[in-house]
């Protein structure tokens, strides 16, 4: 199994690139939404983000499988950096999920974008153009970017420098 170690690392790094690539598309959408005022444009951007999130989860799965197996094969689980990386990844994912899901769920409902709850969503009639502008123009993308970037930078530091 040790002879396959480089391939497990390769899968881990490939998964990380796929994860960041797809999640980057969603992050760009989050910032582009801040200037969108047309319901159809907001709906289209949200649909694009939803597609990229699906790809992101595939990258996350590859990242985790490759990283965990490489960690086992390379006997890295006796070191603190790998545990810290895993914990930080989980904390970052949970934090971002908790920050993003209610916000984007409300935005999806407001513009009648596809959700997991409805086949044919209808825009929220109580959402005025001013309310929509306030919702999309908020600072949520900055908060999400800060949390995600901080987690990414620290995990990258742990993975590359292996400080402990």
Give structural notes.
- The chain starts with a helix and ends with a helix.
- The model has no long low-confidence stretch (mean pLDDT 92).
- It has 5 helices and no strands.
- It is elongated.
- The chain is an all-alpha fold.
- Helix 1 (5-33) runs antiparallel to helix 2 (39-73) and helix 3 packs antiparallel against helix 5.
- It has one domain.
Total E-strand runs: 0
Order of helices and strands: HHHHH
Taking the alpha carbons of the first and last residues, their distance comes to: 25 Å
* Count of the separate structural domains: 1
How many helix segments?
5
**Mean pLDDT reading:** 92
% residues in beta strands: under 5%
Task: Please tag this protein with its features.
164 residues, 77% helix
Give a brief rundown of this model:
By secondary structure, the protein is mostly helical.
Task: Give the topology.
Elements: H1 5-33, H2 39-73, H3 80-111, H4 129-136, H5 140-161
Helix pairs in contact: 1-2, 2-3, 3-5
């Amino acid at each position: 199994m040790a002879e396959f170690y480089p391939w497990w690392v390769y899968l881990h790094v490939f998964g990380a690139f796929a994860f960041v690539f797809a999640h980057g598309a969603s992050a760009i959408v989050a910032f582009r939404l801040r200037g969108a005022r047309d319901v159809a444009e907001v709906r289209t951007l949200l649909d694009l983000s939803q597609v990229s999130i699906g790809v992101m989860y595939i990258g996350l799965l590859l990242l985790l499988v490759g990283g965990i197996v490489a960690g086992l094969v390379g006997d890295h689980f006796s070191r603190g950096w790998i545990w810290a990386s895993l914990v930080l990844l989980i904390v970052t994912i949970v934090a971002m999920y908790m920050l993003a899901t209610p916000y984007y769920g409300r935005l999806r409902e407001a513009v009648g974008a596809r959700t997991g709850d409805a086949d044919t969503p209808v825009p929220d009639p109580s959402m005025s153009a001013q309310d929509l502008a306030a919702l999309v123009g908020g600072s949520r993308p900055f908060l999400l970017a800060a949390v995600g970037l901080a987690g990414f930078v620290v995990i990258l530091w742990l993975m590359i420098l292996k400080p402990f």
